[in-house]
Specification:
Length: 426
Amino acid sequence: MSTLDIYKKLLEGFWVKWSRCRYQSCTRNKVLFKDIFFGAYRLCLLITGGVILRSFPGIICLLAFVTYKWRRRHLSMDDMIEEFLKSQNNLVPLRYSFKEIKKMTKNFKDKLGEGGYGSVFKGKLRSGHHVAIKLLGKSKGNGQDFINEVASIGTIHHANVAKLIGFCVEGSKQALVYDFMSNGSLDKIIFTEENKNTLGWKKMFDIVLGVAQGIHYLHQGCDMQILHFDIKPHNILLDENFNPKVSDFGLAKLYSVDDSIVSLTAARGTIGYIAPELVYKNLGGISYKADVYSFGMLLMEMVGRRKNVNAFADHTSQIYFPSWIYDRLDQGEDLELGDVSDDEKAMVKKMVITAFWCIQLLPFDRPSMSKVLKMLESDVELLDMPPKPFHQLPLETSMEIHSCENSNDELSTSLDTVTITSSNIA
């Protein structure tokens, strides 16, 4: 088709029709701009090929660098753990291979639960003794959570502290072997409708005493002062006789027994139990009083057999349980315990007053765990009612309510700020 032909067609007028067309489908294999099309196609191939060839060495180098950093991080973590284990000459727990761990758990068949530091499986030793095996997840602290647990409870023995039987370290695979607690964790007893009335007040009081004795031992009964930093119902395990054991030392820190104030670079704990001074530095130094505060919040939940914060309570006054119960006690009103004996009422009142002393805002105003034990073992009439520990909902409480209403429960904390991070509830 010549230029003249095109000109004539333009003068005559024509219909325009367009579609995706390959040169094979065109009449007599003739396509306008055929050479231009194939030239552009070849140019595109050349450019793409050149980019790939030039980028290939860079991609290889990048992959090599990432692999190197990953291996270095994990190898340094493994070296740190091995160095720690070698330094513990008096370490009592046995060291198991990962193959033995798999055999104990029948290839991780019976899962008991899952927490922030990994999954827990039921297992059995060759002797027939049942154990709980915590398989640690991918470490966020270069193996520090593993070292924290082994260092803190590897050599101690107390009736109210979970016993570490053994451990496993094989590269990135880390596991801790504990005595199996047949009645699970305390939260399953006090928070579930079918179980919350399983235990009477006498047994509940015995559990309180046991937990207090366990924490007191960690603070003053060992060569080093062990601060738990995560006392809560989920971390209190119950054996077949409902004897309590303080467990889960992933956040624990060891300090000299002479240290009244300790250093901590970041806040640690669970919202609702974390002591205020871990968030606000101006409230006072960080010490064993942080565990005392957490124990007080735990004690309140045991008395109420409910979460301290309930955004869906029938009355707004009951949203924050400690505030509601303080007002009732202060006004001389009944605690609404139902059909209980006078001895049980006195027992519960003693628990409540002790809890209020434990959750005082300033660490200085809280008792030590040895004083807590004396309060629990004394006559309720001898206990003074402490000042109201809050003038409004504590920070962590208001955050929990906000979290409840917005279906978010993952919280990040630092010493200067507390922020809420969006996540789906598991």
